[in-house]
């Protein structure tokens, strides 16, 4: 089947690659490339954040497990290259297994995320420690990962068209420089509902981050650029504001904010100072590292994930009789749910015959 995927963020690209590897003819259409999507601003670590799954036909744990298993496999592929690889490149999935701490501050902390981890990695993958739960989870080096994912799509035969889709009917008619598809997958993030003629349940959740350099850790050599950090920290219940510290290879993403309903995607200087102060209070070593930049993005918040084959009543008037699958509303868990979403979309396409 010829499938058109709307959206080139992590969900759209994952769906496109999964469909192409299932022998479908796939075209991705998006208004900009993956480097300009909100996915590129994600830190990112596999961890469910601000997403709800209300559909009785979907299991949140199942989607999470499928994604986790895929990321663990990618990390294993990268690790197996060992010293034969000079650096993370587009040919090597930029995913690593990293140890860190989920800080707990309440009497009944949310530990729902632990079940998928144990199911995939075993009971030894998590342990209670002073102040929370320690775990080893996949860290996805997002900007490089998106480049790797896009290259993987191209190798699999996926085509790309950089156009803004304003009409689903026009897309189905092949008016955006693409052939008329046999099915459409809407994975447009915050614009997913707009492509479908409107979705009152979509609500942006503004996030802001500060990016620091990750040092070389070689103190006393004369070339010291500060400490090299590898362990991550998630502290969503910090009374001063949600706090996370996510070290990647060459940089460290610290955050954050969760401003529901804000459409402001520009970093705010005062907010950045507050974020950095919280992060440095949690990880004092950060004070020794220089700031590389700032970022802000709009997470595609929704009352619940929209993932399924749409009925005629859910489509805009005038839409041709072509199956449309929705795959958006992932909140802050776009990367975390990406492979589970892609596998579910591919399963739905298989039912179309």
TrEMBL record:
What is the protein name stated in its UniProt record? D-amino-acid oxidase
Q: Which UniProt keywords apply?
A: FAD, Flavoprotein, Oxidoreductase
State the family named in the UniProt similarity comment for this chain: Belongs to the DAMOX/DASOX family.
Q: Does the record carry Flavoprotein as a key word? A: yes
BP GO annotations = D-amino acid catabolic process
Q: Name one GO molecular function term.
A: FAD binding
The organism encoding this protein is: Corynebacterium terpenotabidum Y-11
Pinpoint the FAD dependent oxidoreductase domain residues. 3-348
């Amino acid at each position: 089947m010829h499938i058109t995927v709307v959206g080139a963020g992590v969900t759209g690209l994952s769906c496109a690659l999964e469909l192409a590897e299932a022998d479908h003819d796939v075209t991705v259409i998006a208004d900009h490339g993956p480097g300009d999507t909100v996915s590129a601003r994600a830190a990112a670590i596999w961890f469910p954040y601000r997403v709800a799954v209300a559909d009785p036909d979907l299991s949140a744990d199942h989607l999470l497990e499928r994604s986790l298993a895929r990321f663990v496999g990618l990390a294993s592929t990268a690790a197996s290259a060992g010293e034969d690889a000079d650096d993370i490149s587009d040919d090597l999935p930029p995913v690593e297994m990293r140890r860190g701490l989920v800080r707990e501050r309440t009497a009944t902390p949310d530990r729902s995320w632990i079940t998928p981890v144990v199911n995939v990695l075993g009971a030894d993958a998590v342990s209670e420690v002073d102040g929370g739960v320690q775990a080893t989870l996949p860290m996805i080096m997002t900007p490089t990962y998106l480049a790797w994912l896009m290259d993987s799509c191209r190798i699999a035969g996926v085509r790309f068209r950089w156009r803004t889709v304003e009409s689903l009917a026009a897309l189905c008619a092949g008016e955006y420089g693409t052939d008329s598809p046999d099915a459409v997958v809407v994975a447009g993030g915050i614009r997913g509902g707009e492509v479908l003629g409107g979705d009152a349940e979509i609500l942006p959740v503004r996030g802001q981050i500060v990016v620091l350099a990750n040092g070389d850790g070689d103190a006393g050599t004369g070339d010291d650029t500060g400490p090299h950090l590898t362990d991550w920290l998630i502290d969503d219940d910090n009374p001063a504001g949600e706090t996370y510290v996510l070290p990647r290879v060459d940089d460290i993403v610290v955050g954050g904010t969760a401003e529901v309903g804000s459409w402001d995607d520009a970093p705010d200087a005062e907010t950045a100072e507050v974020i950095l102060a919280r992060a440095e209070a949690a990880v004092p070593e950060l004070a020794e590292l220089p700031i590389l930049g700032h970022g802000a993005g709009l997470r595609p918040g929704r009352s619940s994930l929209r993932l399924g084959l749409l009925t005629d009543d859910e489509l805009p008037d005038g839409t041709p009789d072509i199956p449309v699958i929705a795959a958006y509303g992932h909140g802050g868990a776009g990367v975390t749910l990406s492979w589970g979403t892609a596998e579910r979309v591919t399963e739905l396409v298989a039912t179309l015959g």
